Amino acid sequence: MCEFIISKEKFSFGILDRVPVADENQCILLYRDKDGENGSYLIDNYKKVYTSDIRRGKYNVKVVFAISKKTSRHTFNVAMKNNGFYFKVNMSMSYTLKDIRNYYFKDGTDSIQLVVREVRSLLNRHDGRWEMQQGNALEKELVQSIEEILYRNISLKFFDIVVEVQPDENAKKMIRSDINKDIVIREQKNDAIVKVDKNEKQKEILQSEYHVHEVKAQQLQKAAEAFGPLAPIAMEYLSGEMSGKELYKYIEEKREKDLSVLLEARREDFLTDQKFQDELGEAIGKVDFMNTGTQTRLQDNMSGQIEEKTQEEVDVKDGDFL
User: Measuring CA to CA, how many Å separate 118 from each of 113, 142, 147?
Assistant: First the structure.
């Protein structure tokens, strides 16, 4: 006996018999063997039944159906494209009778089995088509296809349809292994990218530092051409590391030191007159941005010292001997 059929028995309706009444969540089908569906009579809780209709039909079979909700669960296997592995397809749905006559007379009370066979045929067409990582895509396609099969069914009404696709245990282990490998590869790639990025940044820093040094060297070279030995101190002044007063003081002190050294050398006869004059002119005119008044004062002082030194030398030479 099928899942919705509660009872099936011979039926006769006499003059004193009462009209059959369907209990809650039940339905009664009356028919004649020789006519089958044609002329059959359906009794439920919503239809008023007349004695004349029952007597006129001369029915001889009575079938009582349950119209409560049923639940069905099925598991199928779909072979993966990868040899030796498969997807496990779990399908569950709830259903109830929608067309009792079609269910009983045409489907032969085998509606749910017909649905399951149609679903299995659908899944067989998917064998060997899907990769191990394509379970979600397969599930999405199966949900739509299976729902179309169920909603086409005339005899049953389906609801709460659930379709889940999961790889088998061996495939799960393989997927986890692949995921771990991918994670390691991504980490290695990320480390390599970070290392390359770090090296590129260090290279940019070195290039920047080299450029700065190159610019400074060029500036120093130009300063050396313009200021001679005073180039370093001039660079400090131009870069703002030395004030104008400090620069002037440094120049004055250097000039006085150079003149002192020059005079001492002349006094000890280390320099000829011509050489002394050349060195003196160079020392005095060494810095273009020196104060003009200071240059004149220094030159005057140096000239007086030179004349005195020359007179002393003449006196010594005219004498007999020292």
Answer: 9, 12, 12
